[in-house]
Amino acid sequence: MNRWLGRVFLGTALTLATGVTAATTANLAAPPRVALTWCLQDLPPRQYYPADGQPYGPMVDFMKTLAATAKVQLKFTPPTPVSRCLWLMQQGRVDLMIGLVKSNERASYMHMWPFDVARPASLFTLNTAQLLSSVQDLRGRRVVLVDSHVYTEDIRAELTALQVQIVRAASNEQALATLLYQDAEVMVAPYHITLHSIAQNPRFKSIVAQEVQLESTRFAKSYLAFSRKSKHTDYASQLEQALTQVLAAEKPDFYQVPAAPSSD
């Protein structure tokens, strides 16, 4: 009896030891996932980034799906302005940005892959202004552009052909103030960023987006960017393939107008 119990105990011990060894070997064989840092800011309705919490929203969900598909971890910077994020991307101190317009300068220090439509040059006016029925209604008007935004050659060419009078502003806020004080009649600027600027300052609440779009922006694309100086630059191909898979499964539309809340 004692000999039988001894054999059972020895067999159980060997089984446990083998299991532990196999689990340990499996853990050693699976290296930790690379962590890529996404530089972002609070930019409703695409993403919300409260000062005392974690980012959330449709763009955050999209990036988490992309990271899982690419088999990497996703880290977030603190809320960071776009201009600062671009500088960090140039230095390779962060890895990812999303929702960018492509330019030759940006493509020189970032891999850039299209993932969605873009509205890089939406038209904004005072809500008391006459609605624009077509882009021809811009002809000869005073139009304010923002120095910190990228306007493609096609956009500039279309505005030139419309013989608009260009007014310059250093920032979105300055451009909105120019519109508010009627030093310009129309503001041309990115849709989401400008709506966010309007929401942040009550004095701009009389400024609205027009439905009419410039012809040159009808097929504009929004891009996912990966720093060419990233410490993990060898993951570029893996990210691009993951993006293709995610887009094949579900095409995002980050310009959908959210439904009005129920009055019930």
In terms of topology, how is this protein built?
Blueprint: H1 2-29, E1 35-38, H2 58-70, E2 73-76, H3 82-91, E3 96-100, H4 104-109, E4 110-117, E5 122-126, E6 142-146, H5 153-161, E7 165-169, H6 172-180, E8 186-189, H7 191-200, E9 207-213, E10 221-227, H8 236-249
Parallel strand pairs: 1-2, 6-7, 6-8
Antiparallel strand pairs: 3-10, 4-10, 5-8, 5-9
Helix pairs in contact: 2-8
The number of distinct β-strands equals 10
Number of helices: 8
What is the distance, rounded to the nearest whole angstrom, between the alpha carbons of the first and last residues? 76 Å
Q: What are the low-pLDDT stretches, counting only 5+ consecutive residues below 50? A: 4-10, 12-18, 20-28, 257-264
The whole-angstrom Rg is 26 Å
Give the assembly state of these chains.
single chain
- What portion of residues belong to β-strands? 15-25%
The CATH class name of the largest domain reads Alpha Beta
Percentage of helical residues? 25-40%
Structural class: alpha/beta
Detailed description of the structure:
- The protein has 264 residues and is α/β, with parallel strands linked by helices.
- It has 2 domains: 35-117 and 220-249, Periplasmic binding protein-like II (D-Maltodextrin-Binding Protein, domain 2, 3-Layer(aba) Sandwich); 122-217, Periplasmic binding protein-like II (D-Maltodextrin-Binding Protein, domain 2), CATH 3.40.190.10.
- It is built from 8 helices and 10 strands.
- The strands form 3 sheets. It has a 5-stranded mixed sheet with strand order 7-6-8-5-9, covered by helices on one side. Strands 3-10-4 form a 3-stranded antiparallel sheet.
